[in-house]
Amino acid sequence: KFNLNYHDFIEYSCKLRMKISNEIKLDLLSADEAERYQKHLILKQIGIDGQLKLKNSSVICIGAGGLGSSVLLYLAAAGIGEIGIVDNDHIEKSNLQRQIIHETNNIGNLKINSARERIKRLNPNIEVHTFKERVNAENVKKIIETFDIVCDCSDNFGTRYLINDACLILNKPLVFGSVQGFEGQVSVFNLFSNSPNLRDLLPESPSRNSIPSCAEFGVIGVSTGLIGVLQVNEIIKIILNKGEILDGKVLIFDLLNMNIKKLNLKADEFNKEIRDLSQFKEFYEDKECSETNIAIKTIEANDFTNLYKKKPQNILLIDVREKEEFSNFSLKGSISIPLSILNEISNIEFIRKESKIKKVFTICQLGKRSEKASIMLSKFKIESKSINGGIDQINKIK
């Protein structure tokens, strides 16, 4: 009927089988997914097979801050089936300049909750797992073991080495990203048995005084966005097994001068001899940017409440939440000085003067920002105590 010669018939048969096969595979995507990912489906490097690989893959992101924001949004948009988010921090207004997955009305909320809600609004097909904790030598392996790929979006060297070493032990590919100022770096570690890892790039953690502190170095928002997007690009290439992956290479961006470098990185077998995280526990916890060398004085919410009832006139209670939070609810007698402007000269001079006749206490919603505030005040030789559990804990006592 078709009047085809043998070769034309074979070619026609192959195309027909491929069409039928693709139609069967397309049924594995929902109608929403087929429409949502249509630009992927017509891209020859992805197609239906590639999209199904993305759908059946899982990625865990350590950190939901600047890097994590763009990583999580683009993982969800690409159709990664399962996404894990690890973070125990709360959103502050100063985060929003670069942490674009969060919004102003989320200030004070947990980052994992804000990120999960945003992902589900962007792509309801994604399964999201959240972990409200900071990774440590005891929990990191359990957290990442069920995921295919680990994406490091952390902000200190102790955590980076911890994630790297856990991935070595579990044989997990690790997509690394780091930013500072206008600069950023991206690499892929531990992709194959002979691949380099973070210890090949940095055999020893930089000393505490060789890098600026977290409060000092600053970062341009777009650098976290760009590096995060490049991390997702590497994740997609790993899943699809396409293109040139940054395995054994470090890509370095200088956005201020628009310089791009790609450096080669060789693996040293000595740096793979890690079998037990407990031997490096103190090293992992020595976080160069966490200012852990400063002792934080704290007080339990119950003890503060009793003290405040007796002599409120002898207490300066500083609420370091943002103005909007303070306006919605505040403790009687507290004054509002947001953490973002606490170190302004006028505020420091006021607090120093008051501290001569009053005891200074800092408070926020849950106690984390108030700890940072007390650290900041100690640098100005102002003694204060952070209230554990913050306003939430005091309200429970009431």
What would you note in describing this structure?
The protein is 41% helix and 16% strand. The strands form two sheets. It has an eight-stranded mixed beta sheet with strand order 3-2-1-4-5-6-7-8, with helices on both faces. The chain has 17 helices and 13 strands. The chain is of the alpha/beta class and 398 residues long. Mean pLDDT is 88; it is low at 207-216 and 287-293. The protein starts with 5 loop residues before the first helix and ends with a helix.
What are the secondary-structure elements, in order, as H or E? HHHHEHEHEHEHEEHHHEEHEHEHEHEHEH
What share of residues are in beta strands?
Answer: 15-25%
- Rg estimate, integer Å: 25 Å
Structural class: alpha/beta
Helix fraction by DSSP (H/I, runs of at least 4): 40-55%
Number of helices: 17
From the spread of the alpha carbons, the general shape counts as elongated
Largest sheet: 8 strands, mixed
Oligomer: single chain
| Low-confidence segments | 207-216, 287-293
In order across it, which strands form the biggest sheet? 3-2-1-4-5-6-7-8
N/C terminus separation: 87 Å
Give the averaged pLDDT, no decimals.
88
Number of strands: 13
Topology of helices and strands:
Layout lengths: L5 H21 L4 H6 L1 H4 L5 H9 L2 E5 L3 H13 L3 E5 L24 H12 L4 E5 L8 H5 L4 E4 L4 H14 L3 E7 L2 E7 L8 H4 L12 H4 L3 H20 L8 E6 L4 E6 L16 H5 L12 E3 H10 L4 E5 L3 H6 L6 E2 L8 H11 L3 E5 L4 H12 L4 E5 L1 H8 L1
Parallel strand pairs: 1-2, 1-4, 2-3, 4-5, 9-13, 10-11, 10-12, 12-13
Antiparallel strand pairs: 5-6, 6-7, 7-8
